[in-house]
Amino acid sequence: MSAAERRLSELGLELPEPPPPAAAYVPVARAGEVLYVSGQVAVAQGQPVATGKLGGEVDTRVGTRCARQCAVNVLAQLKAELGSLDRVRQVVRLGVFVASDPAFTQQHVVANGASELVADVFGQAGLHARAAVGVPSLPMDSPVEVEAVVLVE
Fold first, then answer.
1. Which domains does the chain have, with CATH numbers?
2. Do 149 and 36 touch, CB atoms closer than 8 A?
3. Exposure of 90 by Cβ count < 10 A (0-12 exposed, 13-18 middle, 19+ buried)?
């Protein structure tokens, strides 16, 4: 078991099979030592964690949980691509998209669900730049979608 997977276990998490692409794209694209992980929505065991918009049907606590699940799915895609999460040298950036009611302004708080998990799993190598962006809707009515840029060995 890799150090990152051991840390996931300590956090009570197990990586799922990575979700298949929902449209015409690849889950991970590689450019040299840089991996671009396509946006991952908040699904667990093939089911949505929640649906709807933050500030509407979804509260911040649930949105944060959705962002965390999106990050779990990002990690699952990385493991499928790399074989081991220990090949991650640095999580460079997360893009977090939050389906939001127009009055909702806590996208950055919701995005912490993904950012904190990545930092917990990778330590210093998990500290990253980030964008937390409010959007009117996301695929499959997911409240959150997370994409990543990762430097690997």
1. 3-15+31-152 (3.30.1330.40)
2. yes
3. middle
